[in-house]
Amino acid sequence: MWAFFSRRLRTWLLLTVAVPALAAVARMVAYRIEKRNGPTRVSRALVSLSNVVRRRGGKSQDVSVGGQGEAAPQRTKS
For a disulfide at 50, which of 13, 18, 27, 44, Cβ 3.0-4.6 Å? Predict the structure, then answer.
């Protein structure tokens, strides 16, 4: 089925779905490594890789603590 998609659509799908999903997996693996062994070179590399992908995207999502994400600041009327 993948072959039926146009090249541009396949590229878009990879960049919007697969890359952020892999970054989230890399972040979770890094946190598990840090939880077990403390910060290591591998865990720091995985976190930095995940941060690069998060910075390139528009929204930032934190899947580290219970999958709750970061709380957005409340806007007040003035």
Answer: 27
The sign of the dihedral angle between the CA atoms of 12, 15, 16, 17 is: positive
Indicate the domain borders of the chain: 8-56
Rounded to the nearest 10 degrees, how much is the dihedral formed by the CA atoms of 49, 68, 11, 8? -150
Average pLDDT, the chain: 76
Token pair for 30: 């890094």
Residues 24 and 50 sit within 8 Å (Cβ to Cβ): yes
Task: State pLDDT tens for residues 13-46.
Answer: 888 888 888 889 999 999 999 999 888 899 998 9
Of 60, 58, 57, residue with least CA distance to 69: 60
Is residue 24 within 8 Å of residue 62, measured between CB atoms?
no
Three-state DSSP state, 6: coil
